[in-house]
Please model this.
Amino acid sequence: MNIFVEVFSDEGSKVTFYTVRKEDADISETEDFFRRVSEKTEYQEDALKLVRLLSNQIANLYGAHEKYFNRHERNATALPPKKYHTFKAEDIISFSYSPLRLYTLKISDSIVVLFNGGIKLTKGSAQDDPNVSMYFHEANEYAKKITQAIKENMICINEKSMVDFQGNKIITL
Model:
């Protein structure tokens, strides 16, 4: 089954977000994540904080700074980040603890691929958590395929964009 890498949001001044969509899916993996977690009342505030982190701090203020991508999950990383210090006091988006896990691949300070994720139910590793292990494994497979395609020049990286070797904006893997 093919997966497609496509633009999720390119409206930020610092970062373009990509996502993946399975060949037979109507919506992207990232849209699926936000729909599922937003339906759960107890996680709506964390989901909104995550959206603000992506759209404000990462996309428009600071770019894909390493401090936001510090929750390493093999080939991928997960948001929200582990504890971090903000650049400015007014930018504080506090995640004292959030069970949300949105898996990502930081390509550069200006390109990030968002995958899927879920609500982590256990204190153990994500790969063993019954609620997020599938998303953890998929994100790592997607990250490996994308990284390999970049190494093989099947995906070309520009300042804030990615295209396949033929110049197509939707990349098939």
